[in-house]
Structure formats: C-alpha cells, structure tokens
Design a protein that fits this description.
CATH class of the largest domain: Mainly Alpha
Number of helices: 15
CATH architecture of the largest domain: Up-down Bundle
Number of strands: 8
Radius of gyration: 20 Å
Order of helices and strands: EHEHHEHEHHEEEEHHHHHHHHH
Number of domains: 2
C-alpha cells in the first residue's frame, strides 16, 4: 500500500531538570576523542560550557572544539568540522546548542569520511551514505527544529547561494539527546518565538496533505493545540517552566517522524524559506512565519476540507453554519493572529528581503507541495503576497 510504513527511531531522550546527569554514562560508550560543536558563545555565558567540559574531562575525554556555528550553518563550517574529525580521530561529535548546531554536527558526521564532494553527493544528488558515520550526541539549548531526534541536516552553501535540507536515515540521528527546558531560558524572546513557529510550521507541513481518516492527523491536531496553549503562556512569562517544557517536547515530537507517518506531507513553505534564508540569512522560524499565511491562502482552495477541520479542531472555532470556504478562511486568520501574538513578522520586507530578490528566490526554490503541486510562477505569486 502507498502509505505503509516502518517506524524506527534510535535516539535516546533524557528530559528534565536533571537530564545532564546522564551525559557521563552516555559519553562513556564512545572512545576518548570528542569534537565539541557549539554556537557563538551563549553556552559559555550561561555556564553550560564549563559544566560540560568538566564532565568530559572527568570521563577522561580529549576535547577538540568547533565554535561559532551560525544560525544558518554553512558548508564551509561543515568542512572545517569534517577536517577536525579526521585530524583528531574523533569518536563522538557532541553538539551543544539549537537545531543549527545539531544540523551542522550531523552534516559533519556523514561528510568527514566521504569520498568526493559531500555537498554534491549528499545534499544535491541525495545519494545513499556509503562511508563511515561518526556518532553524534546532543545537548539542546533551543526548542524548535526537532533536530535532536531525527536525521535532518539543513546546510547553506554560501558560494552557490543555496540552502538545502536532507533527512538522512535513522543511523544519522543523534544517539542521545539531553533536553533540559531551563537551558532555553537564556534564549532571546525573538529566538524563542522563532522556535515556536518553526515547530508550528513542521506540524502544519505534515498536516496539510491527504483526505483520508488518519490517526496521524489527530496526533498533529493535539500537538498543535498544546503548542498554541503553551506559547501564549511563554510569551507572557518566558521562564514558565511548564510552558517551556511543553514547547520543547512539542518540538521534538513534531519532527521525530512519528507525526508524518502515512502522510504525503507538503514542505513547500520550508522549501521557499530555505531560499529566502540563503538570500537574507533571516531566522528560520521568522521566515516561515512571513510565508505561511499567504501560502496557505494560495493552496486553500485545493484542500478546503482540511483547512476547515484545522479551524474547528485546532483553533476551536465553531464552524457550524459556515461554508467550508468560510471556515477555512477563519482558521487561516487565526493562524495570522497567532503569528502576530508571538511577535513574528508577517512580511518579507521585515526580514531584509528586496523586491529584486523575489524572482531569484522563486526560481531557485525546490518545487513540491501537498494539495497543490507548485511551479516557479506559483512561488513568485506567493512571495509577492508575502512581500
């Protein structure tokens, strides 16, 4: 059958305030050489870096560092990490940060021993991995991407002006991920909101496809309702542990592949944003927010039933007496209100895009779609509405 599936996820999750206490036992399963990958320094300011270095040294590990991973990790950074892995005979890559750091670490893990150009082989030609994969572990500090429990790796090739994503097989998943919601408290509120909308977008990308009665859609609706509820609380009080923990777990569930089972899925909003990000280097969730409402208005006529269901089951709108079109429209308006309520942008101009960029973005976007198969002209029409 078309939507038969086999589900497997090898990532072990340690969740909660004491989750880091499991790091020593996890790293003890690997050799002595560790590549520590992190971002621009927030892990040092928070004290988490010192804590992790202390644990690694107590475990007798030799640590090599790759710092300064960008919010849109670059192919150049990936290649630098791959070089460090080879030169130091690294046994474990430990990613400490958000999805960008974890994505880059997974990219390093498959590229270090690749024969030939990893970018072309794995992110352009999507070839199967035929070389050694270096194990990855993660300590998550920002919720949103779900990278902590999947094989996804989104990398920007600055020379080619292309931002491409690849979901690798489960062998590339982090072997373990440590999730302490308190680590997300130091994330700026804009980045918190960006992560929230990234999660919401992941859920919608999977939800808006298909017309069958699928258990996965009911799971998606429940996770979206939880996220919407906790987002409102976190915006009012970013240190609300219960809200931040729910947001963190929603993000993990939202892209650990269980919410995509037996679903065709869409992902065109992400494809558009990847190229928007390649041209503007905007925060990923912010780019998704600016694109989503115009995109869903554009494809809504092709999936009226699901959009009407979205209004009723996700936003709690009483759709009795409404036509399908009116109900669908009301649900999308609620989505627009949600974007505004968490402080995310609603136009591309707010993200630094120029009108001259729009055709370039449209013509370089990977084409796909759920209810409507998109072409470059469709993408440009959506971008003009976003601008």
């Amino acid at each position: 059958m078309k939507y038969d599936f086999t589900y497997f996820n090898p990532t072990r999750i340690h969740f909660g305030k004491n989750a880091l206490s499991n790091l020593a036992s996890e790293v003890s399963e690997y050799g002595e050489n560790v590549l520590l990958v992190y971002g621009k320094g927030s892990v040092k300011k928070s004290g988490l870096y010192d804590e992790i270095i202390g644990i690694l040294k107590d475990c007798g590990k030799k640590v090599t560092e790759l710092a300064g991973i960008k919010s849109n990790p670059t192919y150049a950074q990936l290649l630098e990490g791959a070089r460090l892995v080879r030169e130091n005979n690294v046994d474990l890559i430990l990613a400490v940060g958000g999805g960008s750091v974890i994505d880059c670490s997974k990219g390093i893990s498959v590229s270090a021993y690749c024969v030939g150009d990893p970018w072309k082989k794995y992110w352009i030609d999507f070839e199967n991995i035929d070389n050694k994969i270096v194990p990855v572990g993660a300590v998550l500090t920002m919720a949103g991407t779900g990278s902590e429990m999947n094989g996804g790796s989104v990398i920007t090739n600055e020379d080619a002006m292309i931002k491409n994503g690849r979901v690798f097989p489960a062998e590339v998943n982090p072997k373990f991920s440590i999730l302490n919601p308190e680590y997300t408290f130091t994330v700026p509120e804009y980045q918190m909101a960006s992560g929230i909308f990234d999660t919401m977008s992941h859920l919608m990308e999977q939800y808006f496809s298909g017309t069958d009665d699928n258990t996965t859609d009911y799971i998606l609706e429940g996770v979206m309702r939880s996220l919407i509820h906790s987002a409102a609380k976190a915006v009012k009080n970013p240190k609300d542990y219960e809200a931040r923990s729910n947001i963190m777990w929603c993000a993990t569930i939202g892209l650990n592949t269980i919410t995509g089972l037996s679903k065709e899925q869409d992902w065109e909003v992400h494809m558009i944003e990847h190229q928007l990000g390649a041209y503007t280097d905007c925060a990923h969730g912010a780019g998704l927010a600016a694109i989503s409402v115009p995109y869903y208005k554009y494809i809504c006529p092709y999936g009226i039933g699901k959009f009407a269901r979205f209004a009723k089951n996700v936003w709690g709108i009483d759709t009795s007496g409404m036509s399908g079109e009116k109900a669908a429209e009301a649900g999308i308006e609620k989505l627009a209100d949600f974007i505004k309520s968490i402080g995310m942008p609603s136009t591309l101009r707010e993200l630094g895009a120029t009108e001259e960029m729009l055709p370039k973005i449209a013509n370089s976007t990977v084409l796909g779609g759920g209810y409507k198969k998109m072409n470059a002209e469709d993408i440009l029409n959506v971008l003009k509405e976003c601008f």
